[in-house]
Amino acid sequence: MHWWLNSRVYHGVLSGMARKLRRSNLSEDAYTVVRDILLNGDRYNPGDKVSVEELSRELGVSRTPLWAAINRLEAELVVEVVPRQGVYLVDYDPKRALEMYVAREALEGMAARLAAQNVTDRQLAIMRRSIDEQRKCLSKGDTDGYYTRTLEFHAEILRAAHNQTLERLLTSIFAQMQAMRIQHKSIPTHLPKSCLDHEKILSAIRKRDPDTAEREARAHMQDLASAIRRQIAKEQPEIATQKEAHDRLRALTTVR
Question: Which fold has domain 3-89?
């Protein structure tokens, strides 16, 4: 069962209504609701402790299905379970952020390649509409709305790829990004460039050009990684230094 199929359940919870989880599929419903509570940014900040007991009372279920949900979220690296201390929402970690963009480059490059081979006209229309909404958000200065539309765009490419393994891996990465609020640490002036990158990716997918689609998707991730690296270099200068050393070593060992 996908999270969007349970929207009536968790939106009731988040709006403060005394709605309890259904008894038909408690484990799946608990995962759906808890995941949204943790990732919507209204209740928990990165690094916050999550009270399983409080969630149990609020949702009207025992701790068994809640711990099953927590275990799934831990496997997705959205939360960290610290023995004898508790459950914590993943905190912002610049090194992990960079690692995720490196992983995204490979995974989303392949997703774009597969999407160019398998995309439907309906999916192309959804991507087009997403980019149009991104531009509207930028014109209004709605950064949160922009990032929401951005994730929708990338998720639609993933659906068009028709690869469950890629979907599982990237969905986990997207969740970690939401939890760490990486997007809010990006450089705002970089957003229009990201939107232009999306246009290039969509153009290649629409032309059913796998090579160009993968190349543009990879370039987009590389660009985002560079922006994140520049942003955190002041806070974590050793990371930038390590990257520069790595780049020099790679240059020396590259066959020209």
Answer: Arc Repressor Mutant, subunit A (1.10.10)
